[in-house]
Automatic annotation (TrEMBL), chain A:
Keywords: Mitochondrion
GO cellular component: mitochondrion
Pfam families, per the entry: PBP
Compositionally biased residues, Low complexity: 49-62
Protein name (Swiss-Prot/TrEMBL): Large ribosomal subunit protein mL38
Broad class of the protein's primary localization: mitochondrion
Upper lineage: Eukaryota, Fungi, Dikarya, Ascomycota, Pezizomycotina
Region (Disordered): 37-78
Automatic annotation (TrEMBL), chain B:
Spans annotated as Disordered: 368-458
Protein name: Large ribosomal subunit protein bL27m
Annotated Basic and acidic residues bias: 380-458
Source organism, top-level taxon: Eukaryota
């Protein structure tokens, strides 16, 4: 095939398709494309006669009912609709099966109660999968999700959201966890399972960015998205893992923020740390302390951890305060063990000494701005060398006569 | 070779001498003597002996063979590669631990690899040579540990062992004053404020004057500024309002007009102030001394004149999908907000109207009461004059008191009836909408099912 043929190929194919009979169809699609130039998702109408209107699981609540389908459309349900109907039938079947299983006695199973529970659990997982599969092909669902109007209480949208998060954001966070040594330093092992994004003063910051101390003076806003259903209580901790400790010649940790018992579910997205305990429900263990890095200290990693509390287990505010008498030497591992928490979300930013740090520290009454860190100096391992050279030679008493011409060196 | 050639005359000479010495024995004995001598000479022989006969046929090199190939080149500089510190030896930061070509050893814990693959210590501690199969199966590493007894590699899930390696000293506060003059004695920047002729607020003043003239006949003061003129005009209106007619409404209208005029005046004043500020900002230019001794505005300052400093002109994506969404949302929100505000305003107005009506009714009731009281008093006066007609008047009073209550009772059932009459319409409407929804029904059922199942699970 010559180059010009190659070039003309799509055009030729298009013309061939839009031959006699199909001309009207092509013009319509062109018109539709003109009306909606900025969407990558096909509209329902674009699907053509093969698919009739397939309302997604949530269309009843949010959109007005679609116009009545014509007689021909009503007669022949499209592929998508058929598939959906099959999936729903399957769901009904499986739920009935689960009910039957639950009704049966555990002794009937070979492995006893445990086997029964695993069987039920696997069936439930299958039902969840079917729920996703029933709606995943609906263009309306895809469109709604892309427009950010997906209802996160529905499994399909949660699935789509998780898939999107895993595609890039998760990878970045996982990389930050390993390359900033968050994993051995703060936790022995950790794999995040929810999306946490940081924004200061309305601006989202990329994970691991070095931020100005004046920007981080106010508490950030977290954009959090969980991908599993149900309500749960969350704890948010911000830890500085690089606090210089000169007395012990080591780095210690400091808690910059801690709040517990924050109710959260998939439909919630934004949590302003400033409003916790005020407009948002939750117990503040430690209010926001602006991160600061004294001059000369290497960058401080400010780790934002979101921990999930055990189902229904509220942390008592008084015990929390007692546990956190001091911000210094905060151990995430110990905190986690004491209150039985599971780390689920993570984000990170860094802070360094800058022009605004001294002011910020003064404004918040933080001591230590007048200190600067310098490199520790080590004495050389080599023995001191004798002075050499013309002058050094003539320092000896042998050359006493020349001393008036020689520069005296120590 | 020479020795071999020499040997024959020597043996000959020796044989002759021997012959001369031992003439007495027989010839036989002389032969045995020569054999003995040759044996003795064999001991004296320097050349190849019977012991290394195999090398007898050796060929000698015909080219230069004086160890030229074996000798190392003496002109190269020794590279002095290899380990400079042994295991467990104490090092300080920067010490060379190993010099190498390529990476025979890799940098491990607390070590740095230099440009030529030399391995240096990064901290003060003890050198350890080790392997780390978790990091790489074949590589060998050099590390430095803080405690001599530590073993490398460390456990992977344990926190890293780090030392601060810093000392705290008082911070030097650098109070660097920005120089205002360059080295050549020229000011580094010049601020130029353009004197912009802001036109005096002539037009509004004239309008106010005309307005003043219009109401002058009714006793208004003529004021200079439009904003100050407004209250004066309102006062004039209130002064003239007691003429009669529907006085309350007229007053309300006038109040409203006054408020509107005041608002407009305030808005225009604000706008003017903003304009002035903007002009001042645009007029003020900071010219900075450039390298070529010219004064010029910086590019960013020029760019700032175009828009607000937050957005860099030309960087925003205009045609992006998200931008379109944002714009649409903003438009819709403003539209909805407008509707809301209008509704609220309308509700306020209605409330206001109702309040006024209520007040009026109360007034009327009071008036009527007064009127009735007057009448009754008059009647009483008349009856006292006539005598004995008092009870009748009391009855009438009671009747009147009851009357307003009665129609209310009657009105309530009427309303109910009306509702009843209206009700049958609704099902019809539903019927009409049903066939449209009929096609939807199966889907709706599915939905229900789905929602049921989801409800159970959620």
């Amino acid at each position: 095939m010559s180059t010009c043929q190659q070039v003309a190929r799509p055009l030729v194919r298009c013309l061939r398709q839009a031959g006699p009979g199909a001309a009207t169809c092509s013009t319509r699609s062109v018109a539709v494309a003109a009306v909606r130039p900025f969407s990558s998702t096909p509209m329902r109408k674009d699907e053509g006669a093969t698919t009739t209107t397939t309302p997604s699981a949530d269309s009843t609540t949010t959109t007005p009912p679609p116009p009545p389908p014509s007689a021909t459309e009503a007669k022949s349900p499209g592929i998508l609709q058929q598939d959906r109907a099959a999936k729903i039938a399957q769901i009904v079947k499986e739920t009935e099966k689960i009910k039957l299983l639950e009704a049966r006695d555990a002794s009937e199973f070979e492995g006893g109660e445990a086997a029964k529970q695993t069987r039920i659990k696997s069936l439930r997982n299958y039902v969840e999968e079917l729920k996703i599969l029933a709606d995943i092909n609906d263009p309306e669902v895809k469109r709604r999700f892309e427009d950010g109007r997906g209802d996160m209480t529905k499994p399909v949208y949660r699935f789509l959201a998780e898939r999107r998060w895993r595609s890039m954001d998760y990878k970045i966070i996982a990389q930050r966890i390993s390359q900033f040594h968050v994993v051995p330093d703060l936790l022995p092992s950790f794999d995040p399972s929810m999306d946490v994004k940081l924004s200061f003063r309305g601006y989202q910051v990329s994970p691991g960015a070095i931020l100005d101390s004046r920007v981080t003076e106010v508490a950030p806003t977290l954009r959090m998205q969980v991908f599993d259903k149900g309500e749960r209580l969350l704890t948010v901790v911000v830890i500085d893992s690089d606090v210089p400790d000169v007395d012990h010649d080591r780095f210690s940790r400091r808690c910059h923020f801690l709040a517990s018992n924050i109710p959260w579910d998939p439909s919630k997205t934004v949590l302003s740390l400033r409003s916790v305990g005020d407009r948002v429900e939750g117990d503040v263990g430690k209010p926001w302390l602006p991160p600061f890095a004294q001059k000369g200290s290497p960058y401080h990693r400010l780790n934002v951890f979101v921990l999930e509390q055990k189902a229904g287990a509220k942390i008592d505010g008084e015990t929390l305060r007692k546990h956190l008498e001091n911000r210094e030497n905060f151990s995430l591992k110990g905190f986690r063990e004491k209150f039985d928490l599971e780390p689920v979300g993570f984000n990170l930013f860094r802070s360094e000494w800058d022009e605004g740090t001294a002011e910020v520290m003064e404004r918040h009454g933080i001591p230590g701005a007048e200190i600067e860190f310098k490199r520790q100096k080590f004495a050389s391992l080599k023995p001191p060398r004798k002075a050499r050279g013309w002058e050094a030679k003539r320092q000896k008493p042998k050359y006493k006569s020349l001393w008036k011409y020689v520069k005296r060196i120590a | 070779m020479h020795l071999a050639q020499l040997r024959q005359p020597l043996t000959r000479a020796a044989a002759n001498s021997c012959h001369s010495v031992c003439r007495l024995p027989t010839t036989h004995s002389s032969v045995s003597a020569t054999a003995l001598l040759s044996e003795q000479f064999a001991h004296l022989r320097i050349g190849p002996t019977s012991s290394n006969v195999a090398v007898e046929g050796r060929r000698y090199a015909s080219v230069k063979a004086q160890g030229a190939y074996k000798l190392t080149a003496k002109k190269t500089i020794p590279k002095k590669l290899g380990a400079k510190k042994t295991g467990d030896q104490y090092v300080i930061p920067g010490n060379i631990i190993y010099k190498q070509r390529g990476t025979l050893w890799h940098p491990g814990e607390n070590t740095i690899m230099g440009r030529d693959h030399t391995i240096h210590a990064a901290v003060a501690g003890y050198v350890k040579y080790y392997r780390d199969p978790a990091r790489h199966p074949d590589r060998q590493y050099i590390g430095v540990v803080f405690n001599r007894n530590d073993k490398l590699p460390y456990r992977q899930d344990a926190p890293r062992k780090r030392k601060l390696g810093l000392v705290a000293v008082p911070r030097k506060v650098e109070d660097v004053e920005k120089p205002t003059m360059s080295a050549s004695g020229l000011p580094l920047w010049v601020t130029r404020t353009e004197s912009i002729e802001i036109p005096p607020p002539a037009a509004p003043a004239a309008a106010a004057a005309t307005a003043g003239k219009a109401v002058k006949g009714k006793g208004a003061r003529v004021t200079a500024s439009g904003a100050a003129a407004v209250p004066a005009s309102s006062s004039t209106i209130s002064a003239t309002s007691n003429n009669g007619g529907n006085s309350v409404i007229a007053e309300l209208i006038k109040e409203k007009l006054a408020a509107r005029a005041e608002y407009n005046a305030r808005q225009s004043a604000l706008r003017k102030l903003q304009q002035q500020k903007m002009l001042a900002r645009r007029g003020t230019r900071v010219l900075r001394l450039m390298n070529n001794y010219s004064y010029r505005e910086t590019n960013w300052e020029i760019g700032r004149l175009i828009g607000d400093p937050g957005s860099v002109p030309g960087t925003e994506k205009i045609g992006s999908r998200k931008a379109k969404f944002r714009a649409r949302r903003r438009r819709r929100n403003t539209f909805l907000l407008g509707i809301k505000e209008r509704k609220l305003a309308k509700a306020d107005r209605r409330e206001e109207y109702r309040r006024r009506v209520r007040e009026k009714r109360e007034q009327r009731l009071v008036q009527r009461k007064e009127f009735l009281a007057k009448q009754s008093q008059a009647k009483k006066a008349r009856e006292t004059k006539e005598g004995g007609a008092a009870p009748k008047a009391e009855d009438k009073k009671e009747m009147k008191a009851e009357k307003p209550a009665a129609p209310k009772v009657e009105a309530a059932p009427k309303k109910v009836e009306e509702k009843k009459v209206e009700k049958p319409k609704a099902p019809e409407a539903k019927k009409e909408s049903k066939p449209a929804a009929a096609a939807e029904k199966p889907k709706a059922e599915e939905k229900k099912k789905d929602s049921k199942t989801t409800d159970k699970k959620e």
